[in-house]
Amino acid sequence: MLKSYIKGVGHYVPENIVTNDDLSKLMTTNDEWITERTGIKERHHRKNRNDSEETTAYLGFKAAESALKMAGMTGKDIDYIVFATLSPDYFFPGCGVLLQEMLGCETIGALDVRNQCSGFVYAMSVANAFIKSGQYKNILVVGAEVHSFGLDFSDAGRGVSVIFGDGAGALILSATEDENAGDILATNMHSEGKHAEELCTKFPGSKFGWSDRMRLEPENVTDAEVYPVMNGNFVFKHAVTRFPETMMEALDKAGKKPEDLDMFIPHQANLRIAQFVQNRFGLPDEKVYNNIQRFGNTTAASIPLALSEAIENGKIKRGDLVLLSAFGSGFTWGSVLFNY
Question: Which of 39, 63, 118, 122 could form an SS bridge with 332, CB 3.0 to 4.6 Å?
Answer without folding.
Answer: 118
